[in-house]
Structures are given as C-alpha cells and as structure tokens.
Design a protein that fits this description.
This protein is of the alpha/beta class and about 375 residues long. It has 2 domains: about 160 residues, ANL, N-terminal domain (Rossmann fold); about 100 residues, ANL, C-terminal domain (GMP Synthetase, Chain A, domain 3). The strands form 4 sheets. It has a 13-stranded mixed sheet with strand order 2-1-6-5-7-8-9-10-11-15-14-13-12. Helix 6 packs across helix 7. The radius of gyration is 22 Å and the shape is globular. The chain starts with a helix and ends with a helix. This is AMP-dependent synthetase and ligase.
Length: about 375
Amino acid sequence: MTVDNLFILYSKRPMITFGTSSFTFNQILKGDKSQLSPIYEEAFGFCFDWLNGKNDFTLQTSGSTGPPKNITVSRTQLIESAKATKLFFDLKEGCSMLCCLDTSKVAGKMMLVRAMEWGACLRVIPPESNPLKDLKNEVIDFVAFVPLQVEKMMSSASGKRALEQIHNIIIGGASISPQLREKVACLPGKVFQTYGMTETVSHIALANLKEKGDLKYKALPGVKLKVDEQNRLSIHAAMGGSIWLQTNDVVSLQSDTTFIWKGRSDHVVNSGGVKLYPEEIAQEMSELMSVYFPGKLFFLTGTADESLGQALILVVEGVGNNSNAVTFLKKARSILPKYHSPKQILFIPKFKVTPSGKIDQLRTLAK
C-alpha cells in the first residue's frame, strides 16, 4: 500500500493525544510532530512507522524465563491481536482509550496499535502508579493497567470514582491478589486479568475477575489450546505466528478454550512426592502476608531437604524479624492446606527484578 493510499485510509479517523498535544492520524502519517513533548518521541515514532506500513517490528521479551532477548514480530501478528481483542469486547470505531503503560514494551505498543486499527481516540500519558489522578469525570471505553496501578487507585475515593468511569479494564503484567480481585469486582465495568507473552504480542486469553471461584481464562477468538503430559500449555494463534508455541505454564484445561493457571513448571516444588505450585500457594497466603508482612515482596520456592527431597520456603524482601516469622509460620500451618505451609522464611534485603518489573528469583537467590 502506498503512502498516498494510506493518507486516504486514515483521513477520517480519530486522533492520538500524547500528553496534552493531539495529532490526527494523517499528521502522524506525515511526521508532523510540532508541539510533541520529547518524552513521547519513541511512541510517536512507532505510530509513524505503523501508519506508513512498516511490516516487521522488534520487541524485547520480559526476562521472566531467562535474559531478555529481542524478537521480530510481523505487522500481521499485531493486527490479529488487535482484531481479537476488539471482537472479544465488541468495541466500535471511535471508542475512547487511555494508554498509561510503557510504550517501549509490548503492552504499551499494543495500545497504540489497537487505537490505530480500531480508529479510536487514544490519550497517551506516562506510566505512573496513579495514572487517573488528573482525569476528572472522563468516560473511557478501554484501558490496560498493571496491578500496582489498580491497587493504588482503589485505595482512594477519587481513584475509585475514576475507575468507575471505565467500561472495559484489562489488568496484566503480574497476577493480582485475591484482595484486589474482591475490590475490582465492585466496579461497574468489565474487568479482566490477561494471560499472554511477548511472543503472542500481548494476551491470548482473558479471565473475568468478577466471576466467583477459580480464575478461568477464556481464549480469544481463533486461539487454540492444548497441553502435554506435564500439563504445560501450548498455544496456536494468528497473533503468535500461527505455529504451536510451547510454554512453561502448568494449567488445568477446562475445555478447548478455557483453562485455570496453576503456575510455572520450572517453579514446581516436589516435596515428598507431592507437586506444589508456588504461585498458587502465594495466592492462598496473600491475606496472611498482608497481616504479618504488609507491602513486602515475596515468593515461594524449593530448597534441598534430606527427607523430603525439596522443602517449600518463603522468601521475603526486607530485614528479618524472627519473632514475627515464627508467629507467621505457626499461623500458616493452622490455616493453609497440608503441604502448603512453608518450612522456613528467608529474608533478603533487596530483590532483583527483570526489566519488566517482575521478581527475578534466580538472581535474587544467587545473592
């Protein structure tokens, strides 16, 4: 497609507002960035490339399973992802969107792609912990957040009122706590937790946070799922390049299109022949953690044990408090299912994190 044809294609579409400066798609197409703040140069450049028909894009993986690496994805993959999300939420041309994620990462880039492919009115703002603090009574059709942002906004009356003005919310980047899930269930709009990875250019499945019981992820239209003998999930989707992608995520497949996420296969702890999923247990003890170690980062892992093979331990960021630790372990044993109580607590002053902000367990424990 020529630039002239693209000019006609985008001539009647809405605009993208970077901070306080608004641009029509045609202005972006022509590279007219007068009044653009320097902090939005990269995002504007991505939109310019997109509107001018660029076919391949380089994305960086999150670093969750190893060192971050660059991968190349096609324009078609990004379009298919945007189409599937639009179909899932039944969003229309001209819908209003807010991007408050890092646009150098895939989640932020996909917000830009969705806006351009949907013909939406998008506002791009910096990825702050409380991105809605300056937005008053603005009704928004679609927003993506990370859990930290939602937690911050739900903690204030003004933040909650702002969230109540949003029709569709997706939350990704990390699992949310049962406490936060309970809070967002009271919001009037739709609220979903995402499941996906860089290789699938954002989410391929969504879980309704308002439904009771185990969090069930439903695949987007056109996504196929299967598991291997270890119950590790494989994904076949147009946004993933239309090939089967093997993950390290252990799931309970509920149907051809739905699953319950259990945890990562490389994190499984085999304690006395019983397979324990640390991420699942972390959800169970989140309320207990908020009482004894409020605001502290933590994770569960296995350590060598002479009789069990591996013993489950709790790793907490911060300076140790022995009396508090003893009380916590005693309480955990009294309320958690058998085998789910950690045998000990390891305190580490400062956790290592990946470039995407997730806890880097291997580097943290290597210290």
